[in-house]
Design a protein that fits this description.
Blueprint: E1 8-10, E2 13-15, E3 22-27, E4 30-39, H1 43-61, H2 65-81, H3 83-94, H4 98-118, E5 125-127, E6 134-142, E7 145-149, H5 157-168, E8 172-176, H6 182-194, E9 202-204, H7 209-218, E10 224-228, H8 231-240, E11 245-249, E12 254-258, H9 264-276, E13 286-292, H10 296-308, H11 328-344, E14 347-350, E15 365-368, E16 385-391, H12 394-401, E17 406-407, E18 409-413, H13 417-426, E19 431-434, E20 450-451, H14 460-466, E21 468-476
Parallel strand pairs: 7-8, 7-10, 8-9, 10-11, 12-13, 12-18, 13-16, 15-16, 18-19
Antiparallel strand pairs: 1-2, 3-4, 5-6, 6-21, 14-15, 17-20
Helix pairs in contact: 1-7, 2-4, 2-6, 3-4, 4-5, 9-10
The structure holds NADP nicotinamide-adenine-dinucleotide phosphate (NAP).
NADP nicotinamide-adenine-dinucleotide phosphate binds next to helix 7 and helix 8.
Amino acid sequence: MKPKTYKLRIGGEWVDASSGNSFVSVNPANPGQQLGRFQKASKEDVRKAIYAAESAFDRWSGTPAPKRGLILLRAAQIMRREKERLSRLMTMEMGKVLPEARGDVQEAIDMLEYMAGEGRRLFGYTTTSELKEKFAMCVRMPVGVFGLITPWNFPMAIPAWKLAPALVCGNTVVFKPASDTPLCAYELVGILEKAGLPKGVVNLVTGEGGVAGAEIVKNKRIGGISFTGSRDVGEFVMKNAGLKKVGLELGGKNGIIVMDDADLKLALEGVVWGAYGTTGQRCTAASRIIVHEKIREKFEPMLVKAVKALRLGNGLNKTTDVGPLINRKAVEKTHMYTRIGLKEGAKLLCGGKIPKMKGFFYEPTLFTDVNIKMRIAQEEIFGPSVAIIYVSSLDEAIEVMNSVRYGLSSAIYTNDVDNAFRAIERIEAGLTYINSSTIGSEVHLPFGGVKDTGSAREGGIVGIDEFSEMKTVYIDYSGRLQKAQIDKKIK
Ligand code: NAP
């Protein structure tokens, strides 16, 4: 059957790409199933979208913030009603198993609800002045037109983490979703419009990152960019965005430390969930398991048994534990790292093969005897491929944890409170979990990384900083010219 054609959404109108080019979105569990045909926006189309966002800016930024928040709340309510349909659609387009797709939709709902409340806060602050009869405060201002560029691995949650704060702060938006999951983006934007978002406030441009995305990055009329994706494209954004406000959420090489005093059953569950959940395609996925050598004999067989028991399949099937990878390139990349690992001398405990299934599947893969010099211990694979690294102390475990260029998520399983606090203090990461896996962020807390993961902090109150500017206001009611620093007399 011919798939439905979706157009660009610019200024509240459905328009064809001026290039006349399009692409299809397919089901990674069944690539023969085409879910929709989407437009490849040209640079000119992106410029039109920017113009539409500029035209909508005065009205939207002039709308009282609580009213902006109310639209987000209504969108959350619509999403709640449509949660099951949206989740199934997400599993079909992105591949993650249905319970995880429900979690993704729920995360978008949570973020919309949380940011709806921000409409009645958007706190600035007041403070003292060093001069008499002078009042000082900070108020929040929108940035202007925001460019949002998102990946495919959380096709509704990540766009919602950006759209909701950007909109409540009064910005208008040009949104470029990943080419692997445009349908999920359409659904989300459609829901915002159904909830009452005025025309032109969010403009949706699908198409190639190197064309549509790059134009958003480079165009000087865009005031801010919020980008989530790979390190390489993040670097491109940083180099080409000029003087815009830029927020980057990039890759990870996250680790879980399992100490010899840990509850091993609990650690096993956390490791399997963190490593193979979402087929290892979470930015917070655990791809390095840093284990105390004293528990090797006990923990390694437990882990191998659990990984071998994982069932691959279509995410819509109740029996599936691990769904497909996003596309063929991801399968090839994961397999390339299997070959690299073997060549480097790591020992394959299980997996390592492309199964004979029609979708983009890869066997859950586990390497042992990995050391920090190996590429499989350093580079982001973004698939179900995990390396066990043995250590002899907490100090060594933390050294291994910090040996990578990234710094997103981390975890430690230990029953020793001193170990836990030392890990909190010394691990270089934006997130550290104690006795819990590397994944599971909540919308009211900051999320982001350090080092090459980028330094954006989305979510929570600090997430508002990413999408607003602080204006400092001085009100002098003394009736005379007072000079800060100069008129200050300390006796
Ligand atoms: P990606 O290849 O960097 O793509 C991300 C987005 O950037 C897509 O919309 C892509 O468009 C677009 N893009 C590509 N080239 C561009 C360019 N030159 N200029 C502007 N935009 C461009 O990443 P991905 O494969 O979608 O996602 C996986 C990566 O995201 C992993 O590294 C993962 O760790 C990271 N991630 C990080 C976080 C976090 O919070 N830190 C969360 C999730 C994922 P096309 O799809 O059209 O190419």
